[in-house]
Amino acid sequence: MNIMIINSFSEHEKIISELYAEEKRNFLSQNFFSPNQFSPNSIDVEKIRADFPILSEKINGYDLVWFDNGATTQKPRQVIERIKYFYEHENSNIHRAAHELAARSTEAYENARKKTAAFIGADTDNIIFVRGTTEGINLVANSYVKPLLTPGDEIILSMLEHHANIVPWQLIAKETGAVIRVAPVDETGQIILSEYEELFSPRTKFVSVTHVSNALGTNHAN
Prior knowledge:
Number of helices: 7
Shape: globular
Helix content: 40-55%
Radius of gyration: 22 Å
Strand order of the largest sheet: 4-3-5
Distance between the termini: 23 Å
Order of helices and strands: HHEEHHHEHEHE
Structural class: mainly alpha
Strand content: 5-15%
Number of strands: 5
């Protein structure tokens, strides 16, 4: 079995580097895209791009193509205009005053929560806004998981995790005596499910695995 326990950055980075190099070699050796692979009517790329003003920028003479969404997402015109409207007509502290602008900003904030809940099929009370994924993971790790842990309890991650989904667990594992167990991946970067299942035990308290790997782009939705 290839079940591993990883407790250092250097070991994790070495494994990811090897996987990335192999994935790059596989990519360069194949012709992934053919003219008939995608239906011309399946996605209106130009219509989507038109919603994002910054994508009209030219970089070194080329149209801007943006892949760094994990760090910063570009904003569509609708969002830019709504934020502009907020600062022009509603800007105030939320949930902390009784004057008119506070009422407007609070209503807008809570309506955004309702729309988000409806969009993803969740209860409104379960929607918590954070500044980014890193803050969200740290909140879950420290406010929810950490109090559940005792020495010897286990947290399962995968070999494909971003540091933002490793460091918080390393820190609380060090504080509580918990153990991090790591699911291995195959040569294509997919989690080996049979070995992943073997990681579970009565001591398993939490699993935190990426949906899409930031290093390899592998999708684990299924």
